[in-house]
Amino acid sequence: MAKLYVQAVPTTDLNRNTEWFTYPGVWTIYILILFFSWLVVLSVFGCSPGMAWTIVHLSHFVVTYQFFHWKKGTPFAEDQGVYNRLTWWEQIENGKQLTRNRKFLTVVPVVLYLIASHTTDYQHPMLFFNTLAVFILVVAKFPHMHKVRIFGINADQ
Amino acid sequence: MIKIPYLTALTTLFSYGLLFVFGQLRDFFRKIIDWWSHNKLQGYAPICLGLEDFYIRRLYLRIQDCFNRPISSPPDAWFDVVERISNDYNKTLKRTTKVSRCLNLGSYNYLGFASADEYCTPRVIESLKRFSPSTCSTRVDGGTTVLHAELEECVANFVGKPAALVFGMGYVTNSAILPVITGKGGLIISDSLNHNSIVNGARGSRATVRVFQHNTPHHLEKVLREQIAEGQPRTHRPWKKIFVVVEGIYSMEGELCKLPEIVAICKKYKAFVYLDEAHSIGAVGQTGRGVCELLGVDTADVDIMMGTFTKSFGSCGGYIAGSKELIKYLKYTCPAHLYATSISPPSAQQIISSIKVILGEDGSKRGAQKLARIRDNGNFFRAELQKMGFEVLGDNDSPVMPIMLYNPSKIPAFSRECLKRNVAVVTVAFPATPLLLARARICVSAAHSREDLIKALEVISTVGDLVGIKYFPAEPEKQESRIKFE
């Protein structure tokens, strides 16, 4: 297979925590990791495909909620803490809303939800947990929720 | 423009994801274990807030032996690297008494002034005896000697500006000058890949900072038009001053700045140009006068020229060159001039002597020879590396050439394998470079001979095959016709 080359265009984003998301290959690797984790769950637990998708969907919910909407700041100290009050979701692309990356990240949990509920034949209790997970994730990504902390949860001291 | 093979981009992202996941798992278990153990804080707040030091603890410390290597000789073409050992998986490193003699591909020793020089060193020793190692004072109190006055005149003549001001440290020059020349109502437009000193100075000036895409003049024009039309934030009044800050050679890319187009745009929109020539002064240009000479830009069009003496002149410190009024103004407002100790006299003498050698005023042709040699060395090395199939960045005539590594595990592999074969390279990773684009930065010097470079090429080729970084197809070797003598 001939080597496909892509251009890495340097961005104007100064925030090193989020500028990696604009480079080529990120969307593909995200989808590939989800697909391979489904295969791994199927092999390890030996459950039905629907159950495996539900497990992938719920662990995706936990992981992305923790790292996109809960953890604040950056994992290094060179930016002197200017982003210490912002979660990763609020930091990407300097807070600009409704960009292509944000739309993609909103669509992925919805697609996972549809796959998980379809393959489990919309049975309870999986349907309840899946719906709750996708509801929380999509609402957290609304433009109106930028820098909003409901009931002071996860607010700073 | 950097071209990544698509598969490499995917595997690099996956590797960083894996490292991140392992780091988080270890932190999670560490938190559980620490919850059980005794709390040593005794009521004081912890130094690091939250996960600020995650990258240092879980990613950087794993490959710590590739950075901060101590050396025990002057950074000439060949130098002594002190070996270090670690008993706890790189958390702490201990120096041993063994040294290994390595080929130096990492120092910014562009013209070879880093080691003893036949013209400069006797004069430096004489000035050390005459003036003592430190002036022990700021410039305004008692720290201005005849050497400082001579140095400023020398630098102003060399760079091609009416006057110059010299400071003891290069980083401080940027971070102390930018807050002085603009204030709250000003606008600083800086290149996205500018050095940390410029970012710090711009942040400290409290002016509005905007960034334009690296070396893209049409994006600079777009940003300028947008900002001039909008005016200051919230009040929309016109900006008091607009500065466009660019560098001569970008040290992580090895690229030259597109200075003629940028100066033309700034003239059109009446913005000031601030040129940081840290890596290009003394190393490029016909007589070593930097990018302005190389690209044919009149120095009167660049309003403020800044540079450092650490790279091509083998000394320490930085300078600002501009009009006489600017330098007069800086002399009574700049904190680095009023409160910081002045540059030490032997260092000043080293700069004066090295400028004399470069210009040929010492009566020999060594300056022109050094400039020709660094140009030849740089072009030869870059061409050979590209022929072997490495991805090398940078323009022709630039002495800095980064070799792309991409994958985080190839960074320590390349560094350690090269050190085993007695070649010392500098590898740079996130967050100094973007996440995907880790690289090994090679700086050639006029002190390297052709044999040194050929040895370096052999080692890098072997290590490149071992580590797997030849991303482009290698050019086939020309088949030489062999005449058989029967």
UniProtKB/TrEMBL annotation, chain A:
Topology class, membrane: Multi-pass membrane protein
Main location: membrane
Entry keywords, A to Z: Membrane, Transmembrane, Transmembrane helix
Domain of life assignment: Eukaryota
Gene Ontology cellular component list: endoplasmic reticulum membrane
Spans traversing the lipid bilayer: 20-45, 126-143
Protein name (database record): ORM1-like protein 3
Subcellular locations according to the entry: Membrane
Species of the source: Fraxinus pennsylvanica
Automatic annotation (TrEMBL), chain B:
Protein family per UniProt: Belongs to the class-II pyridoxal-phosphate-dependent aminotransferase family.
Keywords: Lipid metabolism, Membrane, Pyridoxal phosphate, Sphingolipid metabolism, Transferase, Transmembrane, Transmembrane helix
Bilayer topology: Single-pass membrane protein
GO CC aspect terms: endoplasmic reticulum membrane; serine palmitoyltransferase complex
Subcellular compartments: Endoplasmic reticulum membrane
Catalytic activities: L-serine + hexadecanoyl-CoA + H(+) = 3-oxosphinganine + CO2 + CoA
CDD domains in the cross-refs: KBL_like
Protein name per the record: serine C-palmitoyltransferase
Chief subcellular location: endoplasmic reticulum
